[in-house]
Amino acid sequence: MFSEVSWTLGAAIFAVTGATAAAILLWFLLRQQKKRSLLPILQVLELQLKVVPKLRWTKPPLWPFVCFIIAAAALTAYTLEPSESLVKRENLDLRYTHVVFDLSPSVASYITPADYAHLADDVLNRLDHKAKLSFSVSSSPEIFAIGQRDELTKLIAQEGFHRAGFKVGAAVEQLLNLAPDIEHLVIVSDNDRASWEDFNWAYLEKKVQVSWFPLQKEIIRSNNVFIDDVKAPTASSLTQNWTVTIRRSSQGEAIKGTLSVDKGGKTYGETPWSFDGTTSSIEMEVKLPKEALAGQTNVLWVLKTDAKDDLIADNTFRAWINSHDRKAILVSQPRGEMFLEDAFFHLKTSLDVLGFKTQRLDKIVPHNELNGQLIVAEAKPTQPRSFFCPAIKKANEFNRQIWLVPSEGMRDYGELCACAASFIQAPKDIEGIPQYCENLETRDQYVSVLLSLGALQLGGDVNSPLGALAMQYLNKSSGIRLLAFSVPLTPSATTGISFGRMPLLLNSLFQVAPLEGGKFNFGKWPRIDNISGVPNIENLALSNVPFLESSFQTLPETRMPPKLSFGEQGMIRQNVAANREKDARPWIITFLWILAAAIWMEVMGNVIARIFRGQKWVQRWFVGLLIAGAAFGGKPAEAQVKLNMVGYAKTPVLNTVRRDVAGRTSIELLDLPKQNTQINADALSEPWLWVAQPSLIEGLSRTDRAELIAWLQRGGFLIVENYKGAGDFRSKIFEAIPQGQWKLIPPDHELMRSFHLLASLPQCGDVGWEGFQFDQRLAILLIPGDFLESVTGQKGAASCFANLTQEGATKIFINLMMVVLTTDYKKDQVHLPEILKRLR
Amino acid sequence: MSNGPIGTPLLKQLTPYHPIEPSHQKYVSVARFHGTQKLNLMRPTRLPANSRRYTHGDPVHLIDWRAYARNEQLVIREQNDEASCKVLLFIDLNESMDWPSSDEAKERGICSKQELSWRMTLNLAYQFFKWGDQVKVYAVKGGQAHSIRMRSQVDAAIVFEKLQGKDFTLDQADVLQARPLKSFREESGDLVYWISDGFQGVPDWLNPRSLVCWLQVLSSLEIDTKWLDPDSCYFEVQKQGQEFMGSALLQSENLHHAIQGWLHKITEEWLAKYTHHLVFTDMTPIHQYIFALEQPWLRGIRGRI
Q: What's the pTM?
């Protein structure tokens, strides 16, 4: 998207470059001034010596200088000014350009309709050399070709600004649906939040170039007083007072005016109001005389003020005299107590959000009065029609729309189909299940039947009715509009409706299938935010001005599309927000930190150097101190393999074992083992631990055992010798680590193949080698005899492993060591990179 | 304050009370004691103390013929007398004299040239007053000579104590009146002492008919250049932009040679106009200073025909 952005030099980059050059010069010149001393005798001497220059050319220290150069380069780069080059004029000329004129109320504060028409004509003139040019105005969904330019006067100068709001995003979406080949979109508008908030032009820029032709010049909007809300008195109210909220867009000065009701040119109930300096809204109660309301469905409130008022359109406000709330009745049998599983809970919440008064019924009982404007009925499997299907033959003033919704897991759509048919074929009565509704087992069959009954597809792709969300049918004779949904109205993965989209979906449904009030007025007098969303709505021209349009909130220019203006040579597109995604600030801050650190190091280094100037011993002592610190403070490397033994009577002689280990593997086993008489912190500081007798572990105190368990869980490896199958320590270990498991070492265990391939492990009587498998590794190994003695060749006469040769024992020992060091390295393939390296 | 080698008191410790005794006074017993001016009265005397060798031109009637008869040597015996003489002491207070600065001087255990000059001036003033001479002290700064209130040896002592109390810096309150230096050209004085470092060159406003002696005061740091730091720069206020590295000054004793050359040159210049020249530093032993000033040639042989 920024491929068309080029970088030009601005004033900032010259400042940065200049400062950088000066800094580098100073760095080289002024650094390291010598200490200066007065020597008066020099005034009489004629010395033929080289004079020390005031400025010395010194080589700067490397790293701070490198940091400085990097920071300076970054600053220089980031001070480049983004711009779009004008050389692409030819390309611009060939594109299909469309101009949208915003006629929303907030624009009226900048320009009069006549001037606007003039300006619009001028803009079109300037763009006339384009290959294709068209225009549209926000008050009309139509696209006008450039030949219809004469329409401008009518559309703008005569019809003027509309009272409904304008949403650029929605309008552009519609435009692009109508004319997808638009390549350059020019929006003539102000930058008010109400119009622009929903427009993600940066996303659109990938296909269409969007430009904004700002309407405002240097006009600063000062103040706007408007009627924000009017509440009619309820029937039960004693005083029958109207509540009117007046707001203003700014604060500061005190203003006053009057509020009244206009009926056919006559003024009723004139009430004065005044803002003092700090208030921004007034709520006042007004009593209206009866003659002001007689013969009217709505009342027109008019605000008058002597103070400056930027927007006149919002000084009038319409309100219904008798309005009714929208009511929805939901018929659904709850599935259980959990509201999340309740199919209609979310539908009910969404309808609440949309301003409906909702009533929930489990099933339809004959004496229930179904007086809602909207009835939503859910059919459950195996429910008879009488449970959910409202028996309404004709729309009275309330019943205008019926929604039939299948529930999840429907196997038989017969009853549902019969219910839908009863509304479609009304006033004809339908008894039982009609023939065409029999044996409807799938949704597709249900949709097909509705289609053949004359219902229209709602949602889904054109010519693919099976993808429809619902089928709708407006029965002219009964006046009932039926929406037969093909999927449950529940947020779920199968329906594709998310929790967040539910109210939006309903809102768009009401736009497609509007709930008309008939002779009753429902809700509030329309206050239309988006004129392009409701092109043919009644009372569109009389809509109240939306609050956001009146409140004059503006978007910052960085969030607006590139500004379009006309220079002498042609079009100029100035992108304030170019490359804002690549925000340079974090980098600049980082480099400033580096710079500060470099300066600090430089200053500290200089101070220290000054303190110890000329004292050569300092360097020697410093180096000596470093060496001494390393010698005394450093620890030797701790990587070593040595035996860690507890409870052994004598020290094993490891000469031959060490030689074998070193000869066969690349591991150096230390001669001297670590020996402890009992398990303590020292013993547990090594990764493995050989214990002579299981009794040593059984006799541990509670805390010591906890320590041992913690060590095992941290990754320790415990080897217990002379285990005879008795004692309860196995169960205690299991209690402590329940996720582990005791089992005999199987023949395919890694212990049998980690280095040497072993056929079997020597048994001691009938006790085999047992292991505690935990955390996908062997954590404890129980050896039934004195294995270590066999390894070292110090086998006593009473040794259990009578048949085990020293060679065999060494093989097992090496395997064991490998398991301890690498777990199962053949399975883990940890050595694979090394093998591959050798092969290469 | 440190002493010189083997504890010799140094010139930086000089007070007015260090006695200077002209050598001839040691053996001339004169009842009158009126000054340092030695008068040869051309009267024969018998006293052997007043005898000296005959030089060509001496009056024949002064020859001790008896002595000639004894040892064939022409010996003259003439009667001597002393008279008070007019002594002018000029002390140079130009900026270059105020060096080394007091901090640096303290650190190195030496004194500034200005302090040394004052010590010498007041010592001379005190001693000359003691001998009964008329002494006038002028502080020279810029083109003006400011006379210092001093009428007796007590005054000299008081001025010394006062100056010592304030680090040997002269206030406006200490001086009487200013005179342009040119007015001294015709001023006669028997003994004139010019106490200065000579950085302003040889003065042309002194009356060359007097016995003019330049006591050149230099700092020991100017005579000895070993103390220079090779890594420091050295500069002088009047020569803007001329700075020298210590290492360059030290290299092959550049500075030392330059100073010696300058000393030689300025002495030549002085002696072309005036008569005597002595160099002192703060490290000169006091006895050396006294010895030099006690030499009779310094006292002059004026009055002799």
A: 0.41
